[in-house]
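Field log, afternoon session.

UNIT: design team B
ACTIVITY: writing a sequence onto a fixed backbone
BACKBONE:
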């Protein structure tokens, strides 16, 4: 079984993504052997209020049981508590995604600590998008640095009861995050090395790594090949492919 914790849906103004509908995304992932995926709205990254994007996402994914919506929040907006409560009511309070570099706040902000405390209390996973695109691909007039891994580690240290999943971390960032904090997991989407997975596991324990493809902003097959050619043990492969993801977010289990 292969589960993907890093997919998105919607229009991104800097890239022409061919997977435009929930059905197209579900069919594509199934053809790649991915049985379940955590999907966020990429439009929520640039929208002044992600809530409407989240509701649209939940609506269009409702007919695709293999795709689990991941709600995005901006904790600096005053209504995030009401949004989180609404997501829990409709069965989507398993995790929340934040994009602090695009929503322009630091992880040291009091609002982030308030969000972290609430999520830990409800046993929800905080998903931190370290970047949406590789910085080398950014439009010249919209350069957005990645999230500081030291700031994420500090947040994890302040909230040891909160589980944090970091998406699209580079190799060195992933190592720093996991070495500093016991409650942080990382995906492989933006880790690039010869024999990527084996190299990553020299610095990061297998139990803290999950499969993420960053589809459709990255090629799904590229990250599949990292797994297919990984020089790892069978137990390590199982952890990365689905066990770790299911421990973090049991709702990802295929119906």
């Amino acid at each position: 079984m292969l589960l993907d914790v890093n997919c998105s849906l919607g229009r991104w103004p800097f890239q022409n993504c061919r997977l435009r509908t929930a059905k197209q995304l579900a069919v594509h992932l199934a053809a790649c052997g991915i049985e379940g995926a955590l999907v966020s709205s990429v439009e929520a990254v640039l929208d002044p209020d992600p809530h409407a994007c989240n509701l649209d996402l939940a609506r269009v994914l409702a007919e695709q049981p293999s795709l689990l919506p991941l709600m995005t929040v901006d904790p600096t907006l005053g209504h995030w508590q009401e949004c989180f409560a609404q997501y829990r009511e409709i069965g989507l309070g398993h995790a929340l995604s934040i994009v602090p570099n695009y929503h322009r706040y630091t992880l040291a902000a009091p609002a982030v600590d308030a969000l972290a405390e609430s999520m830990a209390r409800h046993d929800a996973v905080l998903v931190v998008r370290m970047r949406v695109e590789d910085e080398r691909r950014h439009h010249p007039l919209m350069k957005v640095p990645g999230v500081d891994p030291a700031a994420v580690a500090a947040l994890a240290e302040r909230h040891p009861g909160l589980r944090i999943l970091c998406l699209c971390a580079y190799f060195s960032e992933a190592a720093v995050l996991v070495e500093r904090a016991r409650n942080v997991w990382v995906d492989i989407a933006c880790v690039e090395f010869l024999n990527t997975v084996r190299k990553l596991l020299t610095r990061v324990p297998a139990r803290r790594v999950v499969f993420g493809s960053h589809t459709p902003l990255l090629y799904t097959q590229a990250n599949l090949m990292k797994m297919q050619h990984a020089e790892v043990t069978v137990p390590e492969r199982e952890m990365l492919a689905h066990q770790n993801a299911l421990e973090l977010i049991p709702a990802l289990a295929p119906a």
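LOG NOTE: The mean pLDDT is 94.
NEXT ACTIVITY: expression trials, pending approval
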